C-alpha cells in the first residue's frame, strides 16, 4: 500500500507571511477569546472554574519592545492552556498613559520642531497635542499586540485615562481622602528641575558618577561632601551621642566659627542615626535638601532653610553666589573656601551614585514641597470582601496589610526569593507622594477657595479653583485588576452570576495571576495589593509571577545608546511570529534575565518549518 500523498501546501517551506494573517482573522472571527461567547456557544460550562489575567498595559510612549513581547507570550501560553482545560478564561487588554514619560516625549518633540515649551502653548493646547499622540500610539500598540497572536478579549479593552478608569480613580481618591489616608503636607520629595515635577522613590535611577570629594574645616570639626553648594544653610553639626571622640560636646551647645560667607553660630546635635565609622563621624545637615537631614531636623525641632530653588538656582542665603546655577557656582564656592583656608583636602575621582529621573533623565534635587501623600502608617478599617462595607472590618495600616497579604500566603510571589525583596521594601516604605506637577494625567479632585479645601469629583462652584496637579500614574495603575472589571459601577458580591461585563468583578476577581517583570514589583505589584485591600477588602490576584529582563545576545541591557534594540515586529516580518515567540520562551526561567538575538530567532524559524512539515514526514 502506497503512503498517502501530503497536501500540496506541506511540500513547500512554511510561509508565515501568508499563514499568520489568516490565522489571526480566524481567531478574531471566532470571538472565542471572549468567555461570554464560549459559554453561549457551549464551548465552556457556565459553572466552569474562572481563570483571569489583566495584561500589564504597555505604555503609549512608543512601540512594543522585546520585554513587552515576552510578557505577552508568557501570558498567552497560560491563557490558552487554561482555556483548553475547559476553564472560563478572561484576558483583558489595555494601554497605559505613562503620564510623565508621554508628556516629556511630546514636549521634547514640540521643542525640537517649534522651539516652544508647554508654558508657551498653555495647558489646553498641550493636552490636545498629547492626546493626539496617544491616540495614534494606542492604535499602533493594539495592532502590534494582535500581531503577536495574543488571544485577548478586545471587547473589554481598557485605557488608564478612559472614562471608566477616570471614574474609578476619582472614587478611589475621594474614599481614601475621607478615610484620612490621603493628606496634603510639606515633606521632602524627589524634585526633577528639568521636568519641574516630583518623582516617586521607585522612579529614581541611580547613575554612577565621578566627582571631587571636599574635606572642610567646620570650626574644630572635619566634614566632607561632594556638594559644597548646599552648605550655606548648614548651622547644625551632628554627631552620635555615644561617640567617645566628642564626649566633651553637649547636645544644644553653641559654637562660633568662620564659614563660607562669614562668621556663624552653629549648634551641636546628638543623634543616633549618624554613622560613626564614616569619615570623622561628624556631619553638618542641610534639612531642606536631604531626606536624612530633614528627618534629623524634624526629630529635634530644628530650623529648615531652603538653599536651592526649583530650577537649581541658589537663593539669597548664598550671599554673593545667589542667582547662580549650582553647577556653575560649585567651582567658585570651592575657590572661596580655599582662599579662606577652610578646605583641608580634595579627593578627586570620588565615585558615587547620583539620583536621576528614570522617566526623563533629570538629576533629582530633594526639595520640601507641599504635596499630596498616601499615609502608609495610619491605622484604618478594611472592608469585608463580600460587601465592601467597613463595618466589622479589620483594622491595620496599609503597610501592615501589604506585608500580611504576602506573609499569610493570600498572594504568592513567584519565584519565592522575590518575597524577601518585597518585605524589605515594605519595611522601609514611607508615605507615598502621589501628586505630580505635569498636565497630562488624572487631575487631583481637590478644590481651593482661600484656605478652604474640598475634595470631591465635581466643582463646588465658580469661585473654587481646582488643584493644577495630576496623580502619579501608578495610582490609577494600582486599580487595574478591578477598574477593568467594572468597579466602582458594579459591586462585588459573594456569589457568581450570569456572564457579561457587568458581572466581571464578581466572576473574575481576584484575578488568577499577575504576570509581569520583576523590575516593577514595587511600582505596581505592591500598590495593587494596597489599593485592592483598602477599596475592596480583597486581594488583586492569587499569584504574582515575575519574569526577568530581556537582554541582547551578549547579555547586555537593551538600550538606545548601545544600538542593540531588536524590534519583535521587524523580526516577525523576516522570520515569522512563531519564531519570535519560541525564541523568547526558549531557555528562559521565571525571575531570571533571558537573551534574544537575530541568530536565535532565525534558528527557531527553521524549527517552525520542521514542525509544519511533520504531516509530510509522517506521511
From TrEMBL:
Record EC number: 6.1.1.9
Database matches in CDD domains: ValRS_core
Keyword Aminoacyl-tRNA synthetase part of the UniProt annotation: yes
GO molecular function: aminoacyl-tRNA deacylase activity; ATP binding; valine-tRNA ligase activity
UniProt superkingdom: Bacteria
GO terms for biological process, alphabetical: valyl-tRNA aminoacylation
Ranges of residues in domain Aminoacyl-tRNA synthetase class Ia: 23-457, 462-593
InterPro entries assigned: aa-tRNA-synth_Ia, Rossmann-like_a/b/a_fold, Val/Leu/Ile-tRNA-synth_edit, Valyl-tRNA_ligase
Catalyses which reaction(s): tRNA(Val) + L-valine + ATP = L-valyl-tRNA(Val) + AMP + diphosphate
Matches recorded under Pfam families: tRNA-synt_1 (PF00133)
Record keywords, A-Z: Aminoacyl-tRNA synthetase, ATP-binding, Ligase, Nucleotide-binding, Protein biosynthesis
A Gene Ontology cellular-component term: cytosol
Identification of the protein by name: Valine--tRNA ligase
Source organism: Candidatus Kaiserbacteria bacterium GW2011_GWC2_52_8b
Amino acid at each position: 500500500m502506497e503512503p498517502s500523498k501530503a497536501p500540496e501546501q506541506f511540500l513547500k517551506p512554511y510561509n508565515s507571511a501568508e499563514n499568520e494573517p489568516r490565522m489571526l482573522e480566524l481567531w478574531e472571527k471566532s470571538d472565542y477569546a471572549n468567555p461570554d461567547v464560549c459559554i453561549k456557544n457551549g464551548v465552556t460550562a457556565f459553572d466552569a472554574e474562572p481563570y483571569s489575567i489583566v495584561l500589564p498595559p504597555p505604555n503609549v510612549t512608543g512601540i512594543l519592545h522585546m520585554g513587552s513581547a515576552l510578557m505577552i507570550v508568557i501570558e498567552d501560553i497560560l491563557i490558552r492552556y487554561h482555556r483548553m482545560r475547559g476553564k472560563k478564561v478572561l484576558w483583558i487588554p489595555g494601554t497605559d498613559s505613562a503620564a510623565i514619560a508621554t508628556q516629556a516625549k511630546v514636549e521634547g518633540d514640540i521643542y525640537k520642531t517649534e522651539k516652544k515649551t508647554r508654558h508657551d502653548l498653555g495647558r489646553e493646547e498641550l493636552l490636545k497635542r498629547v492626546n493626539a499622540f496617544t491616540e495614534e500610539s494606542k492604535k499602533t500598540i493594539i495592532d502590534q499586540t494582535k500581531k503577536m497572536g495574543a488571544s485577548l478579549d478586545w471587547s473589554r479593552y481598557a485605557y488608564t485615562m478612559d472614562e471608566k478608569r477616570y471614574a474609578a480613580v476619582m472614587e478611589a481618591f475621594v474614599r481614601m481622602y475621607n478615610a484620612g489616608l490621603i493628606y496634603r503636607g510639606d515633606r521632602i520629595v524627589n524634585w526633577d528641575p528639568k521636568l519641574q515635577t516630583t518623582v516617586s522613590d521607585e522612579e529614581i535611577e541611580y547613575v554612577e558618577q565621578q566627582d571631587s570629594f571636599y574635606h572642610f574645616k567646620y570650626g574644630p570639626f572635619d566634614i566632607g561632601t561632594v556638594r559644597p553648594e548646599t552648605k550655606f544653610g548648614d548651622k547644625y553639626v551632628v554627631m552620635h551621642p555615644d561617640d567617645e571622640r566628642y564626649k566633651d560636646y553637649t547636645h544644644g551647645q553653641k559654637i562660633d566659627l568662620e564659614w563660607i560667607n562669614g562668621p556663624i553660630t552653629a549648634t551641636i546635635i546628638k543623634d543616633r542615626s549618624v554613622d560613626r565609622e564614616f569619615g570623622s563621624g561628624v556631619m553638618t545637615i542641610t534639612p531642606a535638601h536631604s531626606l536624612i537631614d530633614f528627618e534629623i531636623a524634624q526629630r529635634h525641632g530644628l530650623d529648615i532653610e531652603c538653599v536651592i530653588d526649583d530650577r537649581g538656582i541658589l537663593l539669597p542665603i548664598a550671599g554673593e553666589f545667589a542667582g547662580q546655577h549650582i553647577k556653575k557656582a560649585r567651582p567658585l564656592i570651592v575657590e572661596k573656601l580655599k582662599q579662606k583656608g577652610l578646605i583641608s583636602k580634595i579627593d578627586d575621582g570620588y565615585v558615587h551614585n547620583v539620583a536621576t529621573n528614570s522617566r526623563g533623565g533629570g538629576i533629582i534635587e530633594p526639595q520640601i514641597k507641599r504635596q499630596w501623600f498616601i499615609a502608609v502608617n495610619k491605622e484604618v478599617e478594611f472592608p469585608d470582601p463580600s460587601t465592601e462595607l467597613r463595618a466589622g472590618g479589620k483594622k491595620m495600616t496599609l503597610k501592615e496589610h501589604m506585608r500580611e497579604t504576602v506573609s499569610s500566603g493570600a498572594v504568592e510571589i513567584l519565584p519565592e526569593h522575590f518575597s524577601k525583596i518585597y518585605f524589605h521594601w515594605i519595611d522601609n516604605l514611607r508615605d507615598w507622594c502621589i501628586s505630580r506637577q505635569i498636565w497630562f494625567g488624572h487631575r487631583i479632585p481637590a478644590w481651593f477657595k482661600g484656605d478652604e479645601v474640598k475634595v470631591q469629583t465635581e466643582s463646588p462652584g465658580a469661585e473654587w479653583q481646582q488643584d493644577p496637579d495630576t496623580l502619579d500614574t501608578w495610582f490609577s495603575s494600582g486599580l487595574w485588576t478591578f477598574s477593568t472589571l467594572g468597579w466602582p459601577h458594579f459591586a462585588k458580591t459573594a456569589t457568581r452570576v450570569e456572564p457579561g461585563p457587568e458581572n466581571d468583578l464578581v466572576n473574575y476577581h481576584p484575578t488568577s495571576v499577575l504576570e509581569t517583570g520583576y523590575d516593577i514589583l514595587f511600582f505596581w505589584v505592591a500598590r495593587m495589593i494596597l489599593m485592592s485591600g483598602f477599596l475592596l477588602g480583597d486581594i488583586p490576584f492569587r499569584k504574582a509571577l515575575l519574569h526577568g529582563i530581556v537582554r541582547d545576545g551578549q547579555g547586555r541591557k537593551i538600550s538606545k545608546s548601545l544600538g542593540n534594540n531588536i524590534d519583535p515586529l521587524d523580526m516577525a516580518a523576516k522570520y515569522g511570529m512563531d519564531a519570535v515567540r519560541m525564541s523568547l520562551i526558549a531557555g528562559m526561567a521565571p525571575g531570571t534575565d533571558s537573551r534574544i538575538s537575530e541568530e536565535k530567532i532565525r534558528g527557531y524559524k527553521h524549527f517552525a518549518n520542521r514542525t509544519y512539515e511533520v504531516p509530510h514526514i509522517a506521511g
